[in-house]
Write a structure and sequence with these properties.
It is a single chain. By secondary structure, the chain is mainly beta. The protein has one domain. The chain is about 10% helix and about 45% strand. The chain has a 16-stranded mixed β-sheet that branches. The chain is globular.
Amino acid sequence: MGRKITVAAGALVALGCAAGAFFWLRARATGQPLPDVATPEPPGFQEGLLTNPQPKPAPGKAVSGDRTKKAAPPAPVELQLKTGEVLNYTADVAKLENVATLSLKVAGKGNFLGKNVWHLQASAHTLKPLRMVFELDDQFDSYSDAGTLASVQYEMRLNERGQKVQSVQRMTETGKEPAPAGATEARVKPGTRDPLGFMQFLRTTDWAAMRQVSSPVYDGHKLYDVRAKLASANVAVGVPAGDFRASKIEIHVFENGVESKDASFALYLANDAMRTPVLLEAVMPFATARVELVKDAPETAESKPKAD
């Protein structure tokens, strides 16, 4: 296997793991260095959400229209992700099947830096025979706002060909919140998501009401503008986990206002209650990839397991 193919395979494995992490992978494919920062697990994260009780009006007191105060804005609605959900995938690259195993996990929810957050995780591991030439064991952690999935902190723990890199990126919109020791300050636009948060954002989007969404996405290296468009609301998809009816979402990546033309992506979300990601397709100049769901798909009327 040539060097370009092995690099592409490793990149696409991580792509599937992060379910949209092309934004970070492009930096790796072009040889740009990753930050080499050793960091511990983030301090201050606590299981369980913060409570923000809304003030109640005093009983028996009616307020006239002229003296009515402006109503307080409603509390942010927390997205209904499923704590403990683990989705497992297999990656096919070019004509090679099962080159890697991938997983996406909703690890939990809690409070972090005074915010209610979801703790999202992903991991990727290459398999033989690819592992003999491209050993890869990567883990990604995202702490994303419980209501918007905007990234609060994004962590990468990479182990590729024996080279270990750990990076913690603390997001800041103003640059006035310095990162603690062991973390790197990442200046981002308001509402910026990391690849894991962006994946869940696509899942929680009401595609029946919205045909296109956009978001700034920071991959741990660069900031991109990403647009996702509903290409079809009902297509048939067959993966090892079963046969599904799914919505096809096309993903377009922009850098400095210019769309990247050297790669294309399509994400298929099952038409079930959880909008389970069942397939990710990636087409790049040097290889194509399919990242397919293999198990842990919720059983619904929209899915039918394949016979052995």
